[in-house]
Amino acid sequence: MLAGASLASGGTPDLGVFIGHGDIGSVARAGSVEHDSKTGVYLVSGGGENMWFTNDACHFVWKRVEGDVRLAADIRWPATGGHAHRKACLVLRQSLDADSAYADAALHGDGLTSLQYREACGAPTREIQSNVSGPARLQIGKRGNYISLSIAPAGQELRLAGGAFRIELTSPFYVGLAVCAHDNKALETAEFTDVRITTPPPLDSWKARVASTLEVVSIASTDRRVVYHTRDHIEAPNWLPDGQHLLFNRGGRIYKLPVKGGQPQLLDTGFAIRCNNDHGISPDGTHLVISDQTEDGKSRIYVLPINGGTPRRITPLGPSYWHGWSPDGRTLAYCAERKGEYDVYTIPADGAGERRLTTTAGLDDGPEYSPDGQWIHFNSDRTGLMQIWRMKPGGAEQQQVTSDDLNNWFAHPSPDGKWLVFLTYPKDVKGHPANKDVMLRLMPAAGGEIVILAKLFGGQGTLNVPSWSPDSRQVAFVSYQLVEP
Question: What is the 8-class DSSP label of residue 413?
Answer without folding.
Answer: E
